[in-house]
Amino acid sequence: MSCDHGPFVSSRISRLHRLIKATGGLLAFALTAGLWLGGVARAQDTQVIYPGSMAVTGFSGTIIPNFDEGLPPGVDPVDETFIDTTRATLRVFDVSHLGGPASGQLVFTPPPFEVTAGQIGQVFGLTYDDGVRDGVPSGVPNLYAAATSLHGIRIVTPDTDSDGRPERQRRGTAGAAFMDGQFGTENGGGPGTIWKIDGITGQVAKFADIDTNSGPGIGNLTFDPNHRQFFASDLDTGLIHRIDATGRLIDTFDHGVAGRPAHGLAPVADDGAVMDIQGAAFDTEDPETWGYTQDERRVWAVSYHGGRLYYSVGEKSEIWSVGIARDGSFAGDPRWELTVKADKDYAVTDIAFDNSGFMYLAQRGPVENRYDYSQFADSGKGEVIRYWRENPDDPATESVWVEVPQEYAVGFPQGNRQSAGGLDLQYGYDANGNLDTSACTQTLVNTGDKLRDNPTLAEQLAAGGPLAVHGVQITPKDLVKPANVPPFGSWFVDFDGYFEDPEVEGHVGDVAVWHPCEGRAGYYEEIPGGYLPPFYPPDFPPPGNLPPCLDVDDVQYYCTPSGLEADLYLHDHAGFGGDSIKAQSRTPGVAVTSPMSHAPGKPYTIGITGHYPGDRVDVGLCFYRKSDKDKGGYYPCCKMTLPLRTPAVSCER
Known about the structure:
Blueprint: H1 7-22, H2 27-30, E1 54-58, E2 62-63, E3 82-83, E4 88-93, E5 113-116, H3 117-120, E6 123-128, E7 132-133, E8 136-137, E9 143-147, E10 155-157, E11 167-169, E12 177-178, E13 193-197, E14 204-209, E15 218-224, E16 229-234, E17 239-244, E18 249-254, H4 255-259, E19 299-305, E20 308-313, E21 318-323, E22 335-339, E23 347-353, E24 359-364, E25 384-387, E26 406-407, E27 419-426, E28 428-429, E29 435-436, E30 443-448, H5 458-462, E31 471-476, E32 491-494, E33 508-513, E34 526-527, E35 530-531, E36 551-560, E37 563-571, E38 580-585, E39 591-593, E40 604-609, E41 616-624, H6 626-630, E42 638-645
């Protein structure tokens, strides 16, 4: 973050350099130089969050308490270096004016709103709610942040040498506790805590607590505006927790047990491992001892979209989804969406959707935790990519998503793969870098390390500000590779305003933008509609009181480039075993188009044209086995007419 803080900054940096030199040099201590003057979160005269506000999480930095008094001879300064609880782990930036056209430059923004490590500890995942207060829409959302181990785990034991500082420990030992600033313990927080930041006043409070989390923390968060509830992934157990608007934990979904079998994979139950910081096996520099659930069931990112909860699993990341029923509960219909195709098998720690239905994924390198605070992730190879649904679906491919994603150039270092694991969609910007709130989800924002660090381009980059930038890249979403390589078509924002730490990695976390969009539904965006109970030919139900062989569980509507589409979620009640469907309109003047094939467990998609928005359209369905049809002549066909209540929204451009 570039900001003119005047002589204060220069004098403070010089003083720090003198202190570091006096102790023989210490990279970690350089992280104490927080240059923001905003201080701690406090009540505001005006609201904290506006349309376009960009919240970013990151490591808060370090400090040696009472350093002015000096250290005894032979004492390693790293052993006396602690989390700086007075500095921010969450900042909310005003990025409404970027100062001019994109040219790869660092952006000057007003000082951000800040929340400190002392208040909430280290956090990663972010989400906003819908701004409903006391049942009334306020237009100002609240922001939520989740405790994390992705910015390292640090433990201490009580002071034994009377220097006024606790004793840092590398390994688990009796009497060990989490270091102050790790999990916001002074405000009652822990590794399973979700914090709420009031979007109007900036007040910070504990919102919810997954108190069974022993230390791994929460993967990420998402908000479901249809049911006013939250979902949080638990890195300790692998469970996805459903949480109501008051912070009450309602129930859970277990991907390892209930999800994997839906794709022919063996169930994997949680092994019960926990983070025991007082046990001899615990090692602060070995994440394998931190109590993460097994990789096969470890859920990282979560994102609510189109009536389903999308989530990522494991290091060789798979994307799955599970439906959210009308009452807000898990629908019990998990489905594999795709296995990520990227150069490295890195976890996807954030998922976002634009209003065209494109799915954006951000990778984060494997967890590290250097004792000197320099590295929290193996950075430099994480990708930001996007997928979209095949239109029409290619029956020869396993997934309904395209096989090969598009990739974005992230940062200037060789390879342009500096993703730190966070992303979101922002409004558009005009030619001068001013926010355009009439253009929804036109810009990609993503976190990254060393974003402007490339020696071969140093001379060209120097005009745009410092090179050691760990923060956010802002890019028009259409600039996928090979465009924007190197990313001179992007803007950059630094997280903490300190530019003398080029070697640190993994110090930036997630990013979330408040971008409410109004007006006509976007392409591939789900739009509200419904359906009436189906009816069957006179000879149904079949003899013997058997149930109809086909029923409908749900219908979801989307605006697409081809017009209105409806995803029919059908259920083979009688075990008929059909694998194909024919659909035709039974409403004069309306056309229904559809593929013939139907893979069990997937929605059956039909296109609807010639209707008026809001009309009822009767769709006749014939459910059959392709092998029966291929024999020729008569073949059994389960027939049903499904009355659709089409959305009162036009999909016309």
